[in-house]
Each structure stands twice: as C-alpha cells, then as structure tokens.
Hints:
four-stranded mixed β-sheet; mainly alpha; 7 strands; 759 residues; single chain
Amino acid sequence: MTITPTEESGRAAGGTGEDWTAAPDLLRRAARSWTDPMEPALGQRLGMTYQLLGEPARALDIHRRTALAGTGTPDEITSLAWAAAAHCARGRLRPARALGQLALRALRHCCDPRAQAVTHTTAATIAALEGHGRLAGHHADRAGEAARSSGDAMLQLFVHTSLAAERLEHGACQDVCDTLDTALRALDGSHDGVDVPLVLLARCRRGAAHLALGELDRALTDFTDALDGYQRLGESLESGQLGAAALVGLGDAHRERGDLGPARAAYQEAVVRTERSGDAQLLASALTGLALTRCTDAPGTAAVLARRAADGCVGPQRIRALLAGGWIALADNRPETAAEAARQAAGEPAARISRTACAEILELEAMCLADGQARQRLLDDAEALWATAQRPLAVARVAVARARLRPAPTRSPVHALREATLWLRQFGVSPAAAEAAGLLNRVMADQEPCVSVRVLGGFRVIRDGVPVGAEEWQSKKARDLLKVLVARRGLPTSREVLIDTLWPDEDPARCANRLSVALSTVRLVLDPGRRMPQDHFVTADKHVVGLAQLRVDVQEFLVAARHAVGGAQRTGSGAFASLAAAEELYRGDVLEGEPYAPWAAGLREEAQAVYLELLTRLAAAAAESGDHHSEAHYRLRLLERDPYDEDAHLGLVSLLTSTGRHGEARRRYLLYATAMDEIDVTPAAFPSAPRGTAAGRGSGGDARQLGTYESPSEQLPGSARGGHPLGHLAPGPGPARPPSRAGARVVASSRHVPAGAEG
C-alpha cells in the first residue's frame, strides 16, 4: 500500500489516539514506500514511533530526511521536538538544546496542544539533565496543561510517561505510580490488544516506580509484561532490538532482590540491544547495572564497564555510573579512587536537583571515611534524604548499615540490627544482594568468616571477606575436589571414590599423586598464609579425605531450615520470622555451574526440596495472619521454582479473588489451567471459597471433593451458560485423566530468567 503525504497529513492532524496506536503499522507500510524528502506530517510520526520504540538513531535519521520549510506548522514543531528528544537519548545535550529552543520559539505562534505537549515535555527533560530544576518544572507544568486541554488520553499518557523518570529522581514515587495507573486504566480496551509502544514504555516507567517504592514483585510483573509486548511487537516489525528498557528494569529488580544471575543475563541482553538502537542513556544504565553485578567475581571487568558507562551519558545516568565505579574501587580497597568518584558525581549538574543522587553520593562518601562518627553522620543524612524521596527500601538498607557500623561505645543492641535486617528482608531482599557493589557489599565485607565456601547460586570461596580469584587456583581439578567434598557434605570420602570421580577414565594407580597435589592446592587456597594447622579446614589420611572447620552456606541453610520448621511445628510464636530468616539464606541452587554432575545432584535436590517446604510454610503462615502481600510474594516464588505446584496456583488465585483483583485472578487461573494441561492433569474449578476455608487458602487436596469451588462457567463473568471461557482447558466430560496431582508436580531447577535475556 502506498502512503501519500495527503493521507498522512490528514491522519496526523487529528491529534487522536489513532496517531499513537497506528504507529507500528505505519512503520511497516512506510518502510516500503517513503521517498526523500519526507513531508513533516509523515516525518514527525515516524520520528515519534522510533523514539518511543527506543531507537533514537533511526529517529534522527528520519529527522534528517524530513523537509522542514521553517513555516512553524504543528508538524514541523513536533518534528523538531522529537529530534531533540532523540539527541537527549543519544547523550548529546548541545544539539538537543538547539533543536528544543527552535521548537519553543516556533511554539509562540502555535496553539496546537500536541505540539505544545511534546515540545514542553522535551524541554523539561533537557532542563532536568542540565540541572535546571525550576525551568524543568515550568515546562512540565506547561506540557501537562496542553495534554489535558487536548482531551487526548494517549497524549496525557505520553506526558506522564516522559516526565516519570525526572519525578522519580525528585521523590514523587507514589504519585508517579498512581498517575500512570490512572492513565493506563483510562486506555484499557481502547487499542484492542495491540502492543502500543507508548503503553509498553509506560509499563516500564510504572515498574520503575514500583521498584523505587520497594514493591519488587509488582515491578517484576510490569517489566515482564512490557518485555513480552516488545517481543511480540519486534516479531511483527522483524526487529530484534526492542525491549531494552524492560530488560534494564528486570535487571534492576533482580539485583535489588539478590538474584544476580538473572540480573546479569538481563543487563547483558540490554547492552546488546541498546548498542544496536543507539540509545546511549539506556546503554549506560545497562552497563552500570552489569558492572555492579560483576564486582565480586570480576572486579577488573566491572571497573571497565563502569568507566564505559560514565563516558557515554549525561544526567542521573552519568552520576550512577560514576558512583558504580566508586563502589567497585572501594571493594578493591582503593578508597581514594572511590572518594574521587563521589566528588565527580557531586559536581554533575543533575546532582543539584536529584534527591536520590545526593543520597547515593552521601552513602559512598560515608564508606570512604575511617572516622566512625563522621561516617554515621553522613549515613544519617543519606537516610533522611531517602525518606524524603519516598524510597523505603533504601531507608532500610541504610538502617542496616548504621546498625552494623555504629562505633563500639554507642553500638546499638543486637535486637536493633535484627529488626533493621528483618525490615530489609520484608522487601524481598536476600543476603545475596550484598554481593553486588554498593552499600550492603561494603557493610557486609567485614562480617564474613575467615574462610567460607558458597555453593548456593554458584561456587565461590570467600577468604577474609574477599572472593578468591580464578588465578589462585592452579588447576580446575583442585576446584572440583573441593566441590565434590562439599557435595558429599564434608563427610570423610575414600581416596578411591575421589579419584574415580575426578579422573573417571584413567588408571587409579597413576592418579593417586594427582589427588595429593590437588589436595595441597585446596589447602593453600583456603589458608595461603598457613596460619592454621594443615588439617584445620581439610582432613586427610592414607584412606579418606574430608572437611573440618569450614563454613559452607548450604549446610548453614539446611540447619537453619530444620530449626525453623521444627520451631513452627512446636509453637507459633516467632515462627514466621524464623522461617523467613531461613528462606533468605537460599541464594540459588547448589552448584548451578555443574547442572549435569551426578555427584552434585543429591545435595542440590535436598536443598531444593527444603527451600520449597519453607516457601510453602511461609505462604500458609502469611495466609493465616492475613498478610496478603507476603502470601502473594511466597506463592509467586513457589511458582518460579515449580510452575506445576497446584496448591500455589490455586492459593494465589483465591488470594487475588478475595482482594478484589478479579481480572488478574482470571489471568492467573488461565496460567494454572495451561500448566495442568501440559502435564495431563485435570484443572480444578475456579476457586470461590471464602479465605477462611481450606480451599480458599489453597492448602492442598482435591478442592472439588471439598465442595468449595464452583464451576468456572458459573463463576467467571461473561461466560455463556454451559460453556467455559477457557475452551478446551475446562474440566468436563472426556478421556479419563489422573486423579492425583501429587505425583504430577515437576520441580523447576532454575530461577526465572526473562525471555530473551538468556545471553
């Protein structure tokens, strides 16, 4: 189909929502038919589309092809504004400012609300990046007035979405979340399931607001939904570079929670996509997040990533990249370099108007100080700023730091530290979050034992608070020897078994000396200064080898879980806190890097089973106490690990129904029914029991035998009599299926990684 300039001018001049929702279709048609030079009506629409898709390089290419006569028409003004926004995304403030000023001058003689809203929104973004807070607020107000006067719901959503990042920097987190919620609800059903770039971007911004408020599960939901939409849109447009904003958001949420593996995967994929799209600001965010997650295992690489991020961006992104470099330097015992990074960050223009940036700078400055009293004063100031900025998770993080680092004469009681830590954990933050560069990483460094081994979430030896580098291991077999000993729970293991495990295809008589060399290497890695007796960590004689006084995280987890479960069975007093504390110790599956090693399977499966038991008990305890947020959190974690856990599915559906979230409950029921269909198990009917009943709590058993569920055709609105809204998934007459669900459960052995982020 050929697109004529007259047709596009007519469609663009209307200023209706169609101009936004039809944009992807416009790309498909215009890519085959446009010719240079391009009329402003078509040029501004294509520029808008590419900019909203996160492809500023293509948006600028469209601007260069657009014929601008300087007549000051709404299309010309809007084209200039979109080009200025694209330069901002590319990290180029000078051309962005020049084009923005041209658009503002032309706007004096134009009353078109769309041109006014887009131009003032872009001007607000430029002013905020340059640190002009009052000017940014003025343009934001003018953009909001223009959008409201237009009556265009999509234009209002654009203004709210575009200004969300700046407002989050100032601390208006809850307001941003509420505003975007309202704007998105106003569009429900208006685009008939079409993946609209603006709506997907708005979901990412709302996810960032949820993340700022410490609502990690909601943030993950928003980012995941947005990524799914970008992937569908990318398939229709034959583009594989969409969705970087959603991937960065997923990385941030996983990093805050302590799931560093999924965080790294999301960041790495975001880096690949942004390098193609030309969005320097988003690329810097992805590189910064990746640098923070690589601090422990590859500090050199992390420092390079942080420097690269800081060199290619402006505004808050540059501040956070500089601070990331500071935290990485501090972890590498270079406090002078870290302090210089904090000074550079404080000198950035955007630091003058960003509460969150100032709070992060204060945290880094505090940890660079040797004076405990001065450090406490800076942390107090940081905590106050975080509170003003509506960042409760950050407040909890600083509270933990203050409790741990308080000087000895005024050290707070142990219970104060316990309360601060529990407060942080209630946000869903696990101890593994301290492995990413930042305040928790430095606070926890001096809390590590002399030597410990971590196998949950991957293999790592921690010595005097510092991970042992790969260069210290003289051979892979020495590492494997320690892994095997840990997998066998440190129990004395015969040398013959170890030789057969490490060198299965070689003559055992020739490998005895190799085992002795590997054993010596392990001892040297664990105690390079030979401060302890030779058998302090690893015992050995002519027949067996075992572990002695060596802390292993999986053993600590199993012990804590056993005590927590036993305490919960004996008494309800403090049971939930004990179970939650044990659950926090689980950083990931045992030896994730050895998924096919038969010698690791036993310990891995035992730890998985214990972890699922903890999650199940925590969900049930939260349901009993009426803590809906915690119950939903633990049921979602259960489903991440075991997507076929019927009790978790039905309990979550019942919870959503009881709290009035009926649409989400129906969506979750569809996911449950699909999962059951995959393993050839008949789904139970849609739950309708009160929360006080066993079925309403999702506590197990065949709910239909209890008589507490109604037929989905009777329960779900909009279903025809005698029919089922889920079609072939509905239970009913048909071939017999297994009546029991207990044997159909499949335990998922890996954590959730966002689709498209496996790289």
